[in-house]
């Protein structure tokens, strides 16, 4: 599956179009959102984007990720615990599939699971798989362990194909405009974290946003 992306998104994926793939694992420091990039309000307002945590939370953490990104996968359990402990956070994981067909498949299965009412479970199951380079069989088995047959999820994805591919293309375009160099990338308020980010730093950004 190749997502139909806009030209800006294709620049990100084209050879030489991005500095690194997933090499943003270097510990990040907060930066400001670039002036010409989408603002925080725009990033968190897309109704098509699945949301984890508390859907009515007062602060949204935006994470650009890939299901095969080792840094995303390593931080996932800590993020889950942080979001759960706080209780008032929306966690918006924006798909940025960059590691090939298996990443594309994982994205399609997870998004297809939205209409099946199992997005959070499928998302967690795939992120819990061991190793960086996943196989189709691993992804499909993870979905099944979360109560969704891969074929059913892919059929669901195809039924809303245009909407889902538009969303993924938009996410990739946003990542490019924000200047992200790979996954993960986080946005909290006006704070942009370009790489792996300690929970303590995200917590501070959340506190700053709440203070106004």
Uncertain residue ranges: 4-23
Q: Helicity, in percent? A: 40-55%
The count of DSSP E runs of length 2 or more, i.e. the number of strands, is 6
CATH hierarchy: architecture:
3-Layer(aba) Sandwich
Radius of gyration from the alpha-carbon trace, in angstroms: 16 Å
The largest sheet has its strands arranged as 1-6-5-3-4-2
So, the CATH homologous superfamily?
Answer: Glutaredoxin
Global mean pLDDT = 89
Question: What's the order of the H and E elements?
Answer: HEHEEHEHHHHHEEH
Individual helix count: 9
Indicate how many domains the architecture comprises: 1
**What is the straight-line distance between the termini?**
42 Å
Which CATH class applies here?
Alpha Beta
Helix and strand composition category: alpha+beta
Shape summary: globular
The CATH topology is Glutaredoxin
- What profile does the largest beta sheet have? 6 strands, mixed
Which strand-content bin applies to the residues?
A: 5-15%
Summary?
This protein has 212 residues and is α+β, with helices and mostly antiparallel strands.
Describe the overall structure:
GO terms for molecular function: oxidoreductase activity. Residues 22-211 form the Thioredoxin domain. Belongs to the thioredoxin family. DsbA subfamily. It comes from Paenirhodobacter enshiensis. InterPro entries: Thioredoxin-like_fold, Thioredoxin-like_sf, Thioredoxin_domain. The protein has 212 residues and is an alpha+beta fold. The chain has a single domain (34-187), classed as Glutaredoxin (3-Layer(aba) Sandwich). It is built from 9 helices and 6 strands. Strands 1-6-5-3-4-2 form a 6-stranded mixed beta sheet, sandwiched between helices. Helix 4 (101-112) packs antiparallel against helix 5. The radius of gyration is 16 Å and the shape is globular. The N and C termini lie far apart (42 Å). Mean pLDDT is 89; it is low at 4-23.
